[in-house]
User: What shape does this take?
Amino acid sequence: MNKKNAVPYFGRRGLIFVLSSPSGAGKTTISRELLRLDDNLVMSVSTTTRPKRAGETEGVDYNFVDDKTFERMTAGAEFLEHAHVFGYHYGTPRAPVETALQAGTDVLFDIDWQGTQQLATDENMGVDLVSVFILPPSTEELESRLNSRARDPDEVVRERMAKASGEMSHFLEYAYIIVNEDIDQSVARVQAILDGERSRTSRQVGLHDFVQGLRGVD
Amino acid sequence: MNKKNAVPYFGRRGLIFVLSSPSGAGKTTISRELLRLDDNLVMSVSTTTRPKRAGETEGVDYNFVDDKTFERMTAGAEFLEHAHVFGYHYGTPRAPVETALQAGTDVLFDIDWQGTQQLATDENMGVDLVSVFILPPSTEELESRLNSRARDPDEVVRERMAKASGEMSHFLEYAYIIVNEDIDQSVARVQAILDGERSRTSRQVGLHDFVQGLRGVD
Assistant: This one.
């Protein structure tokens, strides 16, 4: 528990904290910093059918499953959101997220607009959702970050820019928006959004009884 | 301008930041600290028909007017919210608040649940409203704060407790809730709510054009 955010008087339901952005806008760095600084936030671990890469750990980076298992999980509505990207399936299992939320732990999601739409329209999870979109400060900055990632052919970079443009076209579907010019400032802003949302009246559990007690009413 | 919260890429409409609480919960101290720490927040100055007290300054503490002027202003819908308390009228003039919001300045309101309801249902101001309710940690604490205020007769204290109970019964009408046990922690929480709300997508002006520019679309 993050002592700073502990409210001993009543419980709190955790929230689903979604960060989306075009790749190259700094989302991964911001996520890592948030997880490092905030003791009450955990990362959602996705399930995927893509092969494990060197250095990845089962259950930490991903849950690696075969196509059959993924199909069975999809049919059983075990995913909060799932997508098919570059020939592989990715999905977020529902059960561990629900367990975390009930325990008052907040869950960080690093997903795109398609995943966010699935979460936002989920009949059980929509009220828990807090969505933040991170924008780059300029096209030049975005291009330079996409180029510096690897020495990729121009065509690949152009494809990434087109994907970034498509992602950014969905900015209005997010409750909050951040322009990531300075990483420390952006982390502070995202942390304020998270901390503020933790104080939402609708997330507190047992508040009615607490206030009745204050008022001297049984 | 609070540099911390400056977003140079597009404008932002200010927000109406309402703090309500039963008296004795620490709201005045929290308000004073917020105003001291935050350069982009100003206090709304109310208009009242009650006589000026020693030490009060016209235009800073209140705008002091006579009954006739107040009635004329009410009839002209010049108030965002107004109330009749202990024989005197109090009201918030609409024009200076609208000017501040358009300039991107946030306005702090220290009002009760009745004033908050009027703001929340105002056809122009409802979207700008961010409301926070501050609770005391316990009835004992509330009683002791109400008693230590002045050496008032028991009847007056009982009346204040009844008023506090009535105020607290409206907690669910507020978007955010804080239990004020430690003043520094409470100020930090309220500041996080304010900072978080400043990043709301819906408050940004010119965001569409900025994103179109990033996407390379005219």
Remarks:
- The two ends of chain B are 30 Å apart (CA to CA).
